[in-house]
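FAQ: What does the model actually see?

It sees only this:
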Amino acid sequence: METVPLQDPARALWVVPIRHHSPACAAQLERLIAAVQPAAILVEGPCDFDPLIEQLCDPRTRAPVAIVSLREAVAGQATRRVASYFPFCAHSPELVALQAAAALGLQARFIDLPSTAREMVFDEAGEPARSLLSDERPFDVGDYVTALARELGCRDGNEVWDQLFEARIADPDWQRFFADVARYCACIRAATDPAQLEHDGTLAREAQMRAILAETRAVVSGPIVALVGGFHATALFEPATDKPVAARADAGRSYLIRYGMRQLDSLGGYGAGLPLPGFYDRLWQVRDSGGQGLALALVGGFAAHLRASDGAEAPSFPVVANAVEQAERLAALRGRPFPARDDIIDAIRSSFIKGEIPAERVPLLNELNAWLTGTAIGEVPPSAGSPPLVEAVRVQARSLGFAVNDGERRTRELDIYRKPRHRAASRFCHAMALIKADFSQRTAGPDFRNDVALDRLHEVWSVAWSPLVEARLIELSEAADTLGEALAFVLAQKLAELSEHGKGRSALAAIDLFSAACRAGLGTETYAILALVEQQVIEDPQLSSVVAALTDLVLLRRGRETLGIADTAPLDHLIGAAWRRVLALLPELTDFGPDQVRDAVSALADLRGLIELARSSEAPIEIALFDEALARLQGQPLAPMLAGAVMAFAVIDGKTDAEGLAARLSGELASGYVDPAERLAFLGGIIAIARELLWTLPEIITTLDALIAGLDEERFLALLPHLRLALMPLDPREIDRLAEEVAIRIGAQPGQLATTVDISEAELAANLALDRELALVLARDRVGG
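And it is asked to produce this:
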């Protein structure tokens, strides 16, 4: 390909092609600006960000930072507002250019379409765009890059870029450097379908860049430097045909916020820049030395990181020295003046890991990737004007002992029963989760909602204060100035959604919301949810879901002190309403068909657990009303399994004697049902409700034993699957106990029922491997569904 121009002498214009967040491009840009002495610097970026340039160049701003654009979501999107980001790190050429303009007193402008323009709002898939930088995936994929990687012996497009350009960070010939970048990017563009450029908004964006360039040229005397993604460079030499598109004042709002290295990482789904930005940040720091000492700094730094990490095995000094030497020799072998990112990773991989390296990721390499990504979060000046909500939540987080100065993910244990400050921290974490601020994730602890681990004294949280946290707070800032106000706002939104969509006429979703709001410390404001729950319960036609909802309410009442429920009267009222709904649905069991019976029995089993829970927690439930409903059911014709379940209830409540149950069971087992399943359905209903009756009423096993003893082999085999299904609720210990009871009855020794097969650990491992291989074969051949 012919040389691609960098300069239009007739217009005194320099078009500088760059790759976002490239330290080599940033270093060469510094040389270009010093040589050209421009009168104005133009930078690819949304033109409505111009008012934030002063804050970007404030001495108190420390990268990484980002400009976040908030715009109203279009109809059909899940959130009220959508956030898109334009990030900067210390080695972003865009930031270097703007800072140089500020230092020299030059005019600086962004020249792309407004952040709320249609071409900027959606990505290629039609989804809301998260990044406002040009998509740089063509640098990593495509026929041209793939062929070039193969020619250079590189693994991917990122290594190609490092080989061709980052290795030249200290090269004094900036003109040749940018000419090569321009040619490289022009080749990538030539391999792109022209229709794609129209579809993804590239052409509209380039027309805007040309228009603003022409507008600037008309008022500025002297050279102009226009800094754009290399993909767009050639298009800027064409004449402007349109006037710039102006930003609408009411289309959205933008803020300068702190950003993080983890969010900057292209491997994390971010569409522009280079992977593992921590590596390139270190390269930027040593740019004046031409990359010398980079291997020692990175390998030694990672070794120190491992030594400081709990549980990590730190390498010895000889291992570190060997890794440094390997990195430098790999760089020399690959024709690089200093070790590139892949050289460092290869050297650490081969030196720090002993023995054969598995194909899948190993913990040490995961840790290396995280370390080379970095955890730093930037700072913005007070003039950035963060909304009150952001600062209020940051102050609250600090007061509760949470770190907000980096993006490191940490584990926090909270003693929620004994320490008020820990309980406040727990509520803060729950609140941040409820407003979807992406700060906290609960990994362990007592769960009053599901009656799990209530004896555990600590909650365990995984927390990380990332820029995404602040972006979400900014999004909520137009509705709230404090976390409590934000919670109330989000709660109102969620209530409206539940009311609008009905959630399948089930109360469970509303109770989920009530539980979350209580844990977040919303207090009396949560009672607004209870009216919605009551409406859902009254309209719910399913016994199973009403029982589940009532169980959740009783569990929440039991944990009222920890959840901060001071006044239980509204909750007790709702429990009473749900209980009355259960009683109203019980008579409908008489109309259940065969396909509904098993679900109904399962609901009755849950109902027994609910009644026991209510008794132990003194919940306001009138058990006597259930006894009356049960008595009425016993007098009605029911499906055999339901009849067994209802009779089991009556026995454990003392309303029916054991002899009556045994007589009914004997009749069912000896009946002339054509379907074997129906003979055992009554037994299945008993076991589903009260499997302890197997031990407290010997008549059940006696009756069952008599049935089986009288069967020939053919009839036994026909009955066996249904017998297994009836006994399914038994746990392994109960199964062993039943087997022992049967063994004693037939004169066998219980110990003879089990056979222990001793195998070695190696044989066990081999068998497990064979089992996994067989599963893969079955999945491949689509056997078993």
